[in-house]
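Field: COMPLEX_INPUT
Field: COMPONENT_COUNT = two
Field: RESIDUE_TOTAL = 484
Field: MODE = joint
Values follow.
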Amino acid sequence: MCLKKAKEAVNVIMDKLILYLEYPFVRYALIVGVLIALCSSLLGVTLVLKRFSYIGDGLSHVAFGAMAVASVLRFTDKMILILPVTVISAVLLLKSGQDAKIKGDAAIAMISVGALAFGYLLMNIFSTSSNLTGDVCSTLFGSTSILTLTREEVAVCAALSVVVVLIFVFFYNKIFAVTFDEDFSKAIGTRANVYNLMIAVVIAVIIVLAMNLVGSLLISALVIFPALSAMRLFNNFKAVTIFSAVLSVVCATTGIVVAILAGTPVGSTIVAVDVVAFFLCYAVGMITGGASK
Amino acid sequence: MKFKKTVRLIVVLSLVLVISACGAKDKKQQNKDEAVTEESETIEDPEIIDDPEIIDDSDYSEDTELQDMEKVTTGASGGVDVDLSAMSSTMVYSEVFNMMVDPDSYEGKTVRMRGMYVEYLDESTGNKYYACVIMDATACCSQGIEFELTDDYMYPDDYPTADDEICVIGIFETYMEGEYKYCTLKNAHLE
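Field: COMPLEX_OUTPUT
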C-alpha cells in the first residue's frame, strides 16, 4: 500500500518535472547552471589552495557595483561594463596580493564592501527602475534570474564557459605549478605572473557568469564548496579537480530541479545542496580515511 | 591496501545512497497523502509588475507554494493553453516574466493563473485596473497579469476584495496605452 502511494508520488513529481522541462527557460537554466558549476569548480580548487577562497565574494560585489553603474548609465548590454571592471579588480587583487601595502584579505574586504555600498547608493540615488528593492534583492540572491535567460544570454554563457574549460585543460600543468609553488615555478622559468593574470581573468569571467545563477552573495559557495568537499576524499590535484567538477555539476542540477519543483529560490537551494554534499563528503572521508590515507 | 580502502569507500557511499533513498521515499509518500486533499487554480495581472509594495506579506505565498507542491500536475487541461495554476511559484514567476518579455508568443492563448487579487486606480485617467500577482521565491519581486472580467461580473459585488487569492482564466492579449504596450487577459472569469 505504502509502496503504491510512493510510486504514485514519484510519478506525480516526474510528470511535473517533464512538464517543466518543456519550457525553454527551464532547459536554458539547466544548461547554464551546469556550465557555470563546471567552470567555477575547476578554478575553485586553485583558489582554495592559493588561500583566495573569499575572492569570489569580493569580485561579485565589484560586479554588483559595476552593474549598478551600468544601470544608471542605461546601458542596454550591462556586460560591456561589468566584465572589464571585474577583470581589472581580479587582476589587482590577485596580482598585487603580496607586494601591495594593503594585504590580500584586507584588500578583498575593502573592495567588496566598498563596491557593494557604492553600487546600492548609486541605484538608490539614480534609480531607473520601478522596483529597486526587487532588482537589488534579485541580483544579490539570484532568486529567479537563471530562469529568465534569453537564448542570446545562454549562447554567451556557453561560449565563455567553453573558453574557460579550454584554458583550464590546455594550461592545466602551468596552473598546477603556479598553484602549489609559485616561487619554484618562477625559478624554473615559468612565467608565473602571466599565469596568475590568466587565472584572475578567468575567475572574473566565472564570477560574472555565476551572478546569474546564485546571485552576488552566494557565489563563493559555488567556488569553494565543491573543492573543499573533494579535498575531504582525495589528496591529489587531478582527483580533487575531477571530483569537484562532477560534484558541482550534480549539486547545481539537483538544486535547480528542487527549486523549480518546490518553488524555492534557485541560488540558495543550489548552495544548500552544496553544503549537504560537503557534510556527506566529510562524513565519508572520516569513515574511510579519505584524503589523509 | 589501496584496494581495500576503495572497497570501503564504495560500501560507505552505497549505504549513504540507500539511506537517502529511504528518506526520499517517506517524503514522497507524505506528499502523495497530502496531494489527495488538495485542489487549486489561479490568474494574474501585469500592471503591477515588479512592484513589491503592492503586495504585503500575507500567508498567500506559503499557502500557494504548499498547494503547488502537493497538487497533481499533468499539464494544461480544459482548453487552457498556459496553466500557471499548476506550477510552483518559481515557475509561475519565470513564465510570467517571459510572457511580459515576449508577449507576441502568447497572444490569443487561454491562460489560467492563481495569485493575489490587486486593484489599481490610475488617478490621471480614472481608469481602474485589476490584476493577479505572484511573488518570487525570495519574496522581493512580484510578477502579475492584468485581467478584464466579462460583463457578467458587476463591480464591486462580483469582484474579489484586495489581497484575496483568486484564480482567473482569460485570453492573453496586448494593447497599447500611450507609448507603452500592456498585456491583459480578456474575457476573463474567476474560478
